[in-house]
User: What shape does this take?
Amino acid sequence: MNFFEDWVELDLNPIISFSSSGKIVYSNQEAQFLLSRIRQKELFDLALKHAPQTFGVDTTYIDLTIKNYTFYAITVKYENEDEIHMKLYKSAMVKKDSQLSTKNTNITNIFTLVDLAISAKKIKSKAKFIKNYDPSIPEFKINASEFIKVLNLIYDVFETSEMLTTSVILKIGEYIKIDGKKHSIISVEVFSSISCNTNNFSYKDEDASFIVTRDEDKITIDLPLILE
Assistant: This one.
């Protein structure tokens, strides 16, 4: 690998090359991490949307949030009909996994915490609450107070929903890296039976020990599985 190839590989912004059919020809390290969370077709469609009208390069300034990523610009280049290349520029506001905090975390049963949050919301809500738990998940380190706080905020966003499904699952093949060490991901997903305005959802914590991702009908909390 020469200097320029190595430089692209180490770039902190996702760089991806697609074939004309949407297959990935190349992706740097950051893009590979992005692709573990965002569908390949979604990124290919994004490249096509911002591609120049003729052969060449075009950079567009955007305000784009996908999952827990925020991008402020996109550059798309194509010189022939066989390949198209894309670079996304991440906003400095994006929280890196390596910056997740393990402060104020204790070995806790996550199902107990979710049950507490649901029990509190049932008193004031007419929604039907459905729970889908993976019983094989062990107790692990969680900042319990922050976790319950964000879970309550999520249920507040979906207050007009008639049915809410809360799933606690182990994500297969995905990891959160903290201080250079990979941890499996425990994902708490809250699904709404109807689309809600998740733009009203807001949660900020400089010492957050998890990653929160929002979609139109679902908000997800990803937590590192730290056992000791």
Remarks:
- The domain at 99-224 is CATH 3.30.565.10 (Heat Shock Protein 90).
- The two ends are 39 Å apart (CA to CA).
- Helices lie at 3-9, 29-35, 40-49, 110-122, 144-157.
